[in-house]
Amino acid sequence: MTGGNVKDYSIATIGSHTALQILHGAKQEGFRTIAVCEKGKEVPYVSYRVADEILTVDSFADFFDVEDELIKKNAIVIPHGSFISYLDLKRFKKLRAMHYGNKNVLDWESDKGKQREWLKNAGLLLPKIFKDPETIDRPVIIKFDGAAGGHGYFLVQTPEDFWKRLKETGNENRKYIIQEYIIGVPLYIHYFYSVLTEELEIMGFDKRYESNVDSIGRIAAKDQMNLKIETSYDIIGNIPLVIRESLLPKAFELGQRVVDYSKEVTPPGLYGPFCLETIVTPEGEFFVFEISARIVAGTNVHISGSPYAKFRYREPMSTGRRIARELKNAIESGRIKEVLG
Ligand code: ATP
């Protein structure tokens, strides 16, 4: 197959989440860029000079209104977290514009049960789920359905505590899951899997800065009790990390397992950027509590590339740029169809 030219394509995404990084990376690789913005929220994409063109919609839910225009411009759409939050998943799966990544993976990612099955069957270590509250025998976190930012989540370690707290917090009628609480440190691993080279890369790591849980340690326990502070996990920012070098082989292994299993259940499998959200114990065990099957906001800390990306690329390589590099390689080698899903 003959190769094409990046100049014949545009890269488009919706203006939020990791759009600055994606569009900046696309420009670094020579693509034309399009930001689809909500009316009144165009400023960052204009100010930072990342978008050659801005298409405005009243709300992201109206994204499909500009689809014909994207098709006309030969745009490749790069999905990120805001697509899942704002767009109708069923409709998104029928997107006619070119799309980077395997859309079928979204079914697995958006369903917590399926996600768990995926990670478990891939052989990863997951926090245990307690179906029956009477069997609680260790620290557990109670998570409520639809509790964005983890509002109302609480920790207990006995059945008695569980019933008491459920009543006190007025949550008796809400749907919840009881999950083993892993005592360790949170670690978010940013992967990239290339279908062109069939190689898994680790682009970097981050940890989250969440309000108010990350500042509760600044308040003495007795004051926390007096003030009746409720823990929440609203994401405010991200912090870059490097990990102990001897933990790197394990981090690679986890990502490889997830990719290998995804090839079995939804060929051609998971490819492009993805993230495993883990808690690492003092024994060096990685418990995985979630997977994001696309670029995560934590990669925004590495716009000039993480130390790990530096080893491999020796030039600034963000995850956004890595996506564009993959598309460029696919276009130039006549393999673009293999990376569109
Ligand atoms: P989402 O909307 O992405 O599902 P959320 O904010 O509702 O997220 P989680 O991401 O599940 O909730 O968890 C919130 C926080 O609690 C995270 O910071 C994570 O580090 C921590 N956490 C979640 N599950 C566990 C666990 N099993 N053990 C220890 N910490 C956990």
Detailed description of the structure:
This protein has 341 residues and is α/β, with parallel strands linked by helices. The chain has one domain: D-amino Acid Aminotransferase, Chain A, domain 1. It is 32% helix and 25% strand. The chain has 13 helices and 13 strands. The chain has helices at residues 19-28, 43-47, 67-72, 81-86, 89-93, 105-110, 112-121, 159-168, 221-227, 248-265, 307-313, 319-332, 336-339, and strands at residues 10-14, 32-38, 53-57, 75-77, 98-99, 140-144, 154-156, 176-180, 185-194, 199-212, 233-241, 272-280, 286-292. The strands form 3 sheets. Strands 3-2-1-4-5 form a 5-stranded parallel β-sheet. A 5-stranded antiparallel β-sheet has the order 11-10-9-12-13. Strands 7-6-8 form a 3-stranded antiparallel β-sheet, covered by helices on one side. Strand 9 (185-194) and strand 10 form a beta hairpin. The protein starts with 9 loop residues before the first strand and ends with a helix. The mean pLDDT is 95. The structure holds adenosine-5'-triphosphate. Residues 127, 141, 143, 147-150, 179-182, 186, 208, 210, 233, 279, 289-290 line the site of adenosine-5'-triphosphate (ATP).
Task: Give the uncertain stretches in residue-range form.
Answer: none
Kindly name the structural category: alpha/beta
What is the count of β-strands? 13
Shape: globular
Element order: H for helix, E for strand? EHEHEHEHHEHHEEHEEEHEHEEHHH
Residue fraction in strands? 15-25%
Strand order of the largest sheet: 3-2-1-4-5
Overall tally of domains:
1
> Can you say what the CATH homologous superfamily is?
ATP-grasp fold, B domain
In CATH's first tier, which class applies?
A: Alpha Beta
Tell me roughly what share of residues is in helical segments: 25-40%
The second-level CATH architecture is 2-Layer Sandwich
